[in-house]
Structures are given as C-alpha cells and as structure tokens.
Amino acid sequence: MASDRATTHRRLERMDELVSLCARRGFVFPSSEIYGGINGFWDYGPLGVELKNNLKQWWWQRVVRERSDVEGVDSSIIAHPRTWDASGHTEHFSDPMVDCRACKKRFRADQLEDAGKCSAREGSSEHDLTEPRSFNLMFSTMIGASEDAAAQAYLRPETCQSLFNDFKRVREASRQKLPFGIAQIGKAFRNEINPRNFTFRSREFEQAEMEFFCHPSERERWFEHWRDERMKFHHDLGLDPARLRTRSHADDELAHYCKAAVDVEYEFPFGWQEIEGIHDRGDWDLSRHSEYSGKDLGITNPETKERFVPMVIETSVGIDRTCLAILADAFVVEELEGGESRTLLQIHPRLAPIKVAVLPLSKKLAEPAHTLSDGLRKRFNVFYDDAGNIGRRYRRQDEVGTPFCVTYDFESVDDGCVTIRERDSMSQDRVSIDAVSRYLTERVEPAA
Ligand code: ATP
Q1: pTM value?
Q2: Per-residue model confidence as pLDDT tens digits over 336-369
Q3: Which atom of ligand 1 lies closest to the CA of 195?
Q4: Is the CB of 192 under 6 A from ligand 1?
Q5: Domains in the chain, please, with CATH?
Q6: Ligand 1 binding pocket includes 268 (Cβ within 6 Å)
Q7: Helices 15-24 and 319-330, interaxial angle, to 10°?
C-alpha cells in the first residue's frame, strides 16, 4: 500500500523468473504454444507488442526523423536471389555443425560446451560427435509454382542488403548528397542451429539497421560518430551503465572487408552478449552489388569529378535482443516493510507498455473514472481496473512496468482531484483532474 517502504531490493538472477513473468503477463511466449511451441520462434502478446513498438519508434525517431541525413525505407523480405550471391551469404553464411550420435542432437562446433551438457545428461563422459559440417543458416523457399532451382529464393538473414540494392534509387529520389544514410526496421530469419536464451537467439527476429554512405576520407570520423551515437541510445533507454559496454573486434575477428567493428554488449544473467554491431564495411557492399547487378553504384564528385565507391558505416541492432535487455535490466524484487514483496519492472516510462492505470477505489465510482480513462486513452495507452483491493491492483501494474496509477476516490467527486502514484518510489501526488494529462505528458514523453 501507499505507506510501504522497500527494505531490500534484488535484480534478476535467473532467466526463468523473467520467462515466466513474460508468459504469465503476456509479454512474450512460445509461438504456436497450443501445439507445444516451435523452437526458435516467439509471439509477442498485448504488452510485448507495445514495448517492442515503443522501442522501434524511439529508434526510428532518433536515427531517421531527427536527422536530415538519414532516409527510411521498408523493403521486401524476399530479395532477388543474386543479392545473396553478391553479399557472400550463399557461399559463406554457415556455421560448422556437429551431430551427437548418441542423443541425435545437433550443435555448433564452436559451442561445444552444449554438447558437453548433452553427454552429461546421457550419463556418458565421451562425446560421440560427427565431424563438423557446414550448415547454411538461410531459410530457402520457392517462388511460384515451379520447383526448379531458378525459382529458389531466401528469407533475408539480415535486413541491410536491400539498403544497398536501393541505394541509387533512394539517393536520387530523396536528392540526398553524401554523406547520408538509409535505414529500416524489419524481420530477418536465420536457421540457427541452437536457438536459446529465450528470445536472445531466435530463428525469426527483428533488426533495425542503418547504412551510412560517405567519402573514403571520412570513414573514421563517421564510424566514431555512429559508435558514440548508438552507445548513447542504449544509455538513454535506461539500461544500467554498469551492464553496458563496447567491445572492439580484434583484427583476426574482422571480416576481410571490415576495417573496424564494435559490439555493444549487455550483461545478461547468462553473460556479456552482443545486442548491436557497428561496422566499418568499406566499399565492399556497393562494389559487390555493382559487380553482380551490372549497375555502377559509384558516385562522381560534382566539383572534382572524382569517381569513387562510397564507404559504408553500418549500425545493426536486434530489436528482440534489446527488448530482452530492457526487461532483464528492469526486473526488480523488493521486500517491503510490511513483510510483503513486490516484483516490478523499472522500465523507462517512454518504453512502458501501459503508461497509466486508472483505478477507481470503488465500483460505484466507475462512471467518472471511465470518463477520465477514456479522455486519457486518446493520448496514452491506458489500463482500467476496478476489481480487487487497491494494493493488489498496484502490484499488478508494478509487475508490468506501468509508471503511473491514478486512483479515483470518493473525495475526487467533490474536489475534482485524483491521486497519482509513481511506480518506483510509490510516492503519491494529489492532482487536479484537468491537469492529469499534462502531468503524465511531462513524465512519460520527456524531450528526446
Ligand atoms: P551472433 O554472433 O550473436 O550470432 P551476429 O554477430 O551474427 O550475432 P549480426 O549479424 O551482426 O549478429 O546481426 C546484428 C544484430 O542482429 C545482432 O547484434 C543481434 O542483436 C541481432 N541478431 C542476430 N542474430 C540474431 C538471432 N538469431 N536472434 C535474435 N537477434 C539476432
């Protein structure tokens, strides 16, 4: 209740606490659950889709809208198959895979500790593994009725290749001059050998990617610019700075065309893991697509008449992985003075799925409380709840990260005021009903 104070406070320790909250409260749960699920595929429920949309909108706002030098697109998931020859995916996008002859499971050869777990379970100390074989991670499909090889296509394993395919068209249509970028958010598909760690490694996921094209003399400057910008974004999302770091790739980790690469990593309960990559890809992409399409994607400097292929700085963030980091970071269990405990998600108000819950103290107050919530609904995602004791209703909102609860009580009828309770501090303000919308706007939509 209102007088509760937290005595202790602990963070997420095991992923299963989060997995169970996500399923129970409708954030994320297995796809096709009634059929037993399908490994590596997840559905976002009513709260999960709000969180994800809020994240995507924030990214779009920051990377596309607030800048005059980045254009957005939304390209098709299936691209011309030559795209993947040019990008190198048909030939190289594979993981070494081994099969365990005993348990029949398949593992990535570079993640053999999993195979260790399998043999331990089987009670054997020896791995009975096949030799590593290369396994292409692209999902293939057929276009049209014919089943011949010419009709074979792929679900994109990353969203960025269409940004290169569209480079010339977008540059001309938008009349952008170098340096400028093209961005999009969309689904990508990888037939991962071992999907795991909840949504962290899935077979269908969303990426938000941006390719920034610049003159060769400016590549270092733009790489540093985007590395700093992207790190700032993750801080602004409210992720604990102690659990965020950048990791530069060593020279032997870099793809041959890559001059520099930095991962943004978050410390999950299962360790430090990549959530975003920032890469200096040189002129590899546009040169390869020029070669494979036969269309020259180079640019002429109008003043010097110099002809060159633009360099590319890429930023590539996983939306699902970032949502997972946000949820894992926000999860807190507090013991309260009264002996009760509460679970709360300390999500940034801008990301919170529900911004405000309207809670009449009694069902008799339903009518004016509905009028209030219907008014707020035009602007915020509102949850209305008039069932059960008020303490329990607060707890239900805390657990899904709702930053504010508005309580309509018997005095509200006379004084035209309501009580607004804040999630983290549990502090309460008495606010005039006319001022509620402004009060919330100032707190859930802070200036970017
Ligand atoms: P990993 O090494 O973890 O497989 P990656 O280096 O192959 O990732 P990229 O190809 O750089 O990843 O993809 C960019 C971003 O897309 C990653 O930082 C991640 O957030 C997201 N991503 C990649 N693969 C997956 C996946 N299987 N499930 C969820 N998100 C993914």
Answers
A1: 0.93
A2: 988 889 999 999 999 999 999 999 999 999 999 9
A3: 27
A4: yes
A5: 25-93+137-327 (3.30.930.10), 354-444 (3.40.50.800)
A6: no
A7: 100
